Amino acid sequence: MSMGTLLLWPTTALLGFLLSTAVVVLLGSSSTARYEFERNGARTAEAAIARSMSNHPAGRRVAGGTPAGGGAEAQARPQAVAVAERPEPAPAPAAPTWWLVGENAEVLSGPFDDRLDADWALLDSDVPAVAVFGARRADGTVAPRPTPEDRAWLTELGDQLDRLPEDWDALLSDTDPLTTLVVEIASALLEAGLPLYDAAQETPSGGVWLAPDTSNCSVLVSWRTHSRMSAQGSRGPEAESAVLELMNATVADVLAQLGFVVQVTGPVGCSMVTALR
Fold it and tell me: Is the four-CA dihedral 62, 65, 68, 73 of positive or negative sign?
């Protein structure tokens, strides 16, 4: 191997090293120049923003959002927070119950669970008082309310009035005097345990028949037997006539005892009620 060949490879390696070093230096210089350019541009932008913030109506702020010049005192100062106030709900109305009240409806004692407790308290009371079912007002008086028994009674009475014959449909009104009279009669009979006859015949049972008599401004009252006796003749006509006469007389006596003006008419004792005394 000649001397030239031996020197060729070291020379080639040296030249390659020098070329690589030159490339690295060039690339580093380019990156450094670009970095310096971008940093100078960012500083210029920050300076412009700072100048604009110094003239802002809200004032200058330092890093972290704290107003300039405030420092730690501004951070420590308590901030007022507006709290929405909700109106208190209105108190629930008191449920009706029993009370003892005086002459001016003012509460003397109570409440009581039922009428019996109120009556016992009334016996022990030394002042004039009455037992009243109602709701207590804010001024200490009692607003009367229908008792549960009254509501149940009105429901039962309404069911009885629904049994009236169709002749009453055109007469029943708040201003018709016969309406008031027939309601009073039905109420008295129901209290006595005598139901009204179902004119619609939804049930075959008997009862008291109430018919309007507009010519005399009165109510005709008569007894109706069960359909087995009246329609099927289970006991014969004589037994039916005897029962009708007896029951009509009984109904007339009951109404007279309860304060009605009663006139007996007809062969089997049908009654005509004209008024309530």
Answer: negative
Query: What CA–CA distance (Å, rounded) separates 114 from 111?
Result: 9
How far is 146 from 134, CA to CA, in rounded Å? 8
The helix/strand/coil state of 204 is coil
Over residues 186-197, the mean pLDDT reads 94
Element (H, E) at 263: strand 260-265
For residue 192, pLDDT beyond 90: yes
pTM of structure: 0.58
- With a CB cutoff of 8 Å and minimum separation 6, the contacts of 80 are none
pLDDT digits (tens, 9 = 90+) for 51-104: 555 555 444 444 444 454 455 554 556 565 555 555 554 454 568 888 888 887
Report the largest interatomic distance among the alpha carbons of the chain, rounded to a whole angstrom.
170
Which H helix or E strand runs over 112?
A: strand 107-112
Q: How far apart are CA 33 and CA 38, in angstroms?
A: 9
Give the three-class secondary structure for 93.
Answer: coil
Structure token digits, residue 265: 């008419």
Q: Please state, in angstroms and rounded to a whole number, the distance separating the CA atoms of residues 10 and 244.
A: 151
* C-alpha distances out from residue 180 to 197, 238, 273, Å: 19, 36, 12
Question: Which tokens hold the place of 192?
Answer: 């006595």
Residues, the chain, total?
A: 277
Strands 142-144 and 130-136: antiparallel
